[in-house]
Amino acid sequence: NMNTVLDDNKKLCLVSGEIIQMSATMTMMFEVEDLAVASPATVSRCGMIYMEPTTMGFTPLLDSYLQSLPDLFQPHVDKFRDIFDAVVPGMEGIVFFMRKYLKETVTTVDTCLVKGQFNLMASLLKRYVRDPMKGEEPLSGEERRNADKAAVPLWIFSMIWSICASVTGPGRPQLEQFFRKKAEEHEFANFMPPEGKGDASMYEYCYDQDKCKWVEWMQTIPEYKPNPDQAFASIIVPTADTVRYTYVIDKLLLNDKHVLCVGDTGTGKTLNVMDKLNNNMPDLFVPMFMTFSARTSANQTQDFLDSKMDKRRKGVFGPPMGKKYAILIDDFNMPMREKYFAQPPIELLRQWMDHGGWYERHPPCPFRTLQDMIIVGCMGPPGGGRNPVSNRMLRHFNFLSFTDMSDESSIRIFDTILNSYLTKKFDKDVAALSLPICEATINIYNTVRRDLLPTPAKSHYTFNLRDLARVFQGLLRADPRVVAEDSNELYGLWMHENLRVFQDRMVNNEDREWFRELIDATAKEKLGVGWDEVVSLPEPKRPPEEADNDDWVPPPRVDRLIYGDYMIPGAEPRVYQRVKDRSELQRVVEEALDDYNGETTAPMKLVMFLDAIEHVSRICRVIRLPLGNALLLGVGGSGRQSLTRLAAALEEFHLFSIEVAKGYGKNEWRDDLRKVLLMAGAEGKDVVFLFTDTQIVQENFLEDINNIL
Predict the structure, then answer these.
(1) CA distance 383 to 376
(2) 458 DSSP 8-state letter
C-alpha cells in the first residue's frame, strides 16, 4: 500500500510482508496524466502542482527547433517564424480552429502536431546536411541555390502534412480555405501549392526539391502497367492517395521518426505500409511485422521483440550490426484495457520510447537497452473493440490520417485491374465496358454505405472497400467463351456479384427488394440494360412427347440469378457461368448429396428445394474465392452446417471440424488448428474448416481464428 510510504513514518510495505523503512531525506514524486484512479487518501497526502497543457505554448518548441536548423537556412528563420505565428498559435490559429469545428480521426495533442511538423521538416532538409567528419562533399553552388528556393515551400509542405493531416476527409476543404485565407493576409500565398485541383488542392501537390516547384502527386511516380495474371489480393495500383502517404512515411522513416497511420478499415493502411517496408526501403532497414489483438499481453510483446535482438555489448541489444528494424504494428489499439485503463503491450513500448529499453523478467532483472528500432503503427478510430490509446504514447508519433478513398481513386484502381484483364482475355467491345462497370459498382457501393446504416438489429451492416473489391474479384472469373456467345452473361455476372456481396447481408425482404431496384436503376443508367432484360430466361419449349396433350402447363418460371462452377463435376478448369437449367441444377446437387451420403458415416437426409440450392451455390462461391471466408447467420435448423458440408463436397474440398469432448481446452484446440494448417499448407489439400457457435468453449478460440484470417 502506498499510503504508509506517504505518511510521516515512511514505511514501504511489500506484498511479501517485508517492510522497508525509507530515510528522512527521501521523497516520492509522481508525474501522472490525471487522477482518474487515485484514491482520495493518496491524493490528500500529496502536494499538487497542476500544469496546464496550454500554458507552455508553442514558442519554446519553435525556438529550439529554429536554433537546430543548418547554417544554410539561418537567413530564412524570420520568415519561418512569421508564417508559423500567423497560422498556428492563438485563438485565431489553425489548431484552435481544428479543435472547435472539425473532427479528427483520433484525438491528438497540440504539441505533438507541432513537433510532427518539425520532424517532417528535418526529414525533408536532411539532403542538404553534409558532415565533413564522414568525408561527405560540401554542397555545390546549384544545390545551395535550390535549398534557398525550397526553404519556405518545404516549411509550408511540412505544415500541411503534419498539423493539417490528422482531420477526417470532409474537414480538409475547410482547412484548405482557412490556410489560404491566412496566406493572403500574411503575404506568403506565392509559396503555397497551386489552387484548382478540387476543393482540397493543397493536399494534391508535392514540392519537388530537384525542380524546385510544386508537382502533382501522380507525376512523382512512373506510369503503372498492371499484370493481368497476378493474384488479385496482391495487386497494388498507385493512386494519388497511396503515393502521398508513402512519400511522407518514407521521409520520416529515413530520419528515424515513428509514424502512426490512422483511418477506417479498408483504406489501405496496412497494405501500403507493408508494400513500402518490404519493397521500397534501403537495405539498411529490416522489416518486422506484428499484429496486436485484444488478448496480446505485454509479456508476449516483450518476448517477441527480445527474440529478434542481437547482443551488442553488456546490457545493450539491437538488430544485427549496421541494420535497423522497421516494426509495423497493425491494430495498434486493439489490446484490452486492464482495471486501471492501461493497455499493457502499449505501456511496454512506451517505456522503450521514453527510456530506451525495458527490464528483463528473470532475476536479477537487469535493464536492457534497445537500439535502432523504428515503429510504424496502424490503427482504426476507437470504437467496436478498438480502445482509445493514452496520449502519453501518442505524443511520440507523427500522425497520418488515411481518409476514405475518393471516387476517382477507387475508379482508377478497379478500372486499371478490370481493364487489363478484359483487354487480355476478351475482344474490344467487352473491354470498353470496364469503365461503366466500375462507375456503376462504385455508385451502388456509395448508396449502400449512405443508406444502410448499422442498427442493433442489423449490426453487421458495415461495408468497406474490401466489399467493393470482392465484386471485382468475382468479375475476374468471367469466362471468355461464354461471354462471347451471350453479352448478357457479363452483365448478369456483375449483377450476381453485387447481390452476393451486398444483398446476402440483408436481413429482411424490404432491404433486399430495395437493393434489387437499386441495381436495376444503376444498370439502366450506366450500362443501358435493366434487370428484366438480363435475368429473364426464354419461354420453355413444349417437349415433343407432349405435342398432343392439350392440358400441358409450362413449368413455373422463377427468375433467379445463380452462377456456379460446379455444373460439370470434375471439369478442369472449372467454368464460372450462369446456371440456366433448374432441373439440371437440382440433379447435380442431389447427385453430390448421394455421393456424400455414400462415403460418410453420418448421412444427411435433405430435400433439395430452390432456396436451399441457392444457399449451397452461395457457399460454393465463397469457398472458390481466394481468401474467401464466410460467416453464416441464421436460426438453428436453417441448414448452415449441412449445406456447408454439401457445398464442400460439390467443390471437392476436404471438410474439417473439431470434436468438442469433456475437457476440451486450449491445447487440444491448438493441436486441431495445427492439423488443419498442415493439411492446407504442407499437404496442399483444399480444406474447409467448419466452426460452429456451439464449439466456442473459450473466447480465445475466436481470437486465434481472427489472427489466422
Answers:
(1) 21
(2) G
Tally of CA atoms within 13 A in the half-sphere of 185 that contains its CB: 12
- Let me know how long the chain is: 709
What is the pLDDT, as a whole number, of residue 679?
A: 93
Q: Are 167 and 97 in contact (CB under 8 A)?
A: no
Q: Using 50 as the pLDDT threshold, list the residues of the chain that sit under it.
A: none
Nearest CA among 476, 412, 478 for reference residue 439: 412
Is residue 332 classed exposed, middle or buried when 0-12, 13-18 and 19+ CB atoms within 10 A define those classes? buried
418: three-class secondary structure by DSSP: helix
Task: List, for residues 151-165, the tens digit of each pLDDT value.
Answer: 999 999 999 999 999
pLDDT of residue 628: 87
Which pLDDT value is given to residue 554?
A: 65
Instruction: Please write the tens of the pLDDT for every residue from 382-410.
Output: 877 789 999 889 989 999 998 888 888 88
Residue 76, C-alpha cell as written in the block:
530564412
Q: Helices 110-124 and 240-254, interaxial angle, to 10°?
A: 80
Give the closest residue to 442 by CA, choosing from 526, 520, 561, 530.
526
CB contact burial 338-373 (16+ within 10 A = b; e otherwise): eeeeebbbbbbbbebeeeebbeeeeeeeeebbbebb
Pick left, alpha or beta for residue 508 (phi over 0 → left; psi -120 to 50 → alpha; otherwise beta). Answer: beta
pTM score of the predicted model? 0.83
d(CA 662, CA 617): 36
The neighbour count for residue 698, using CB atoms within 10 Å, is 12
> What are the backbone dihedrals phi and psi of residue 471, each rounded to the nearest 5 degrees, phi first?
-60, -45
Q: Which three three-digit cell numbers place residue 272?
A: 501500403
| 241, 263, 591 from 405: Cα distances, Å | 7, 11, 47
pLDDT of residue 539: 66
* Residue 387 backbone phi and psi in degrees, to 5: -105, 155
C-beta of residue 333 within 8 angstroms of C-beta of residue 379: yes
Q: Look at strands 213-216 and 398-401 and give their pairing.
A: unpaired
Buried b (16+ CB within 10 A) or exposed e, 31-64: eeeeeeeeeeeeeeeeeeeeeeeeeeebeebbee
Q: Which one, of 57, 4, 59, 64, lies nearest residue 28 by Cα?
A: 4
For residues 324 and 336, is the Cβ–Cβ distance under 8 A?
Answer: no
Angle between helices 298-307 and 344-355 (to 10 degrees): 50
pLDDT of residue 557: 57
pLDDT at 91: 85
> Concatenated DSSP letters for 53-117?
TTTS-SHHHHHHHHHTS-GGGGGGHHHHHHHHHHHSSSTTSHHHHHHHH--BSS---HHHHHHHH
Residues in Cβ contact with 225 at an 8 Å cutoff, skipping those fewer than 6 apart:
none
Largest CA distance in the chain: 116
Element holding 654 (H helix, E strand) = strand 654-656
Q: Which residue has the cell 488448428?
A: 673
Contacts of 7 (CB under 8 A, 6+ apart): 45
What is the spatial distance between Cα 323 and Cα 523, in angstroms, rounded to a whole number? 55
Q: CA 651: distance to chain centroid? A: 31
Look up residue 652 and give its DSSP letter. Answer: T
CA distance 429 to 434: 10
C-beta of residue 579 within 8 angstroms of C-beta of residue 563: yes
CA distances from 105 to 112, 169, 571, 574, 669 (A): 15, 9, 50, 45, 38
Give the DSSP letter string of 184-203: HHTT-GGGSPPS-SGGGGGG
Do 241 and 409 contact (CB within 8 A), yes or no? yes
pLDDT of residue 373: 94
Q: Is 549 exposed, middle or buried (0-12, 13-18, 19+ CB in 10 A)?
A: exposed
Q: What is the CA radius of gyration of the chain?
A: 31
Give residue 286's identity as a one-letter amino acid code.
V
Who's near 490: CB < 8 A, 6+ residues apart?
A: 430, 433, 475, 478, 483
Q: Which three cell numbers stand for residue 690?
A: 467448419
Bridge partners (DSSP) of residue 394 are: none
The grid coordinates listed for 709 are 484470417
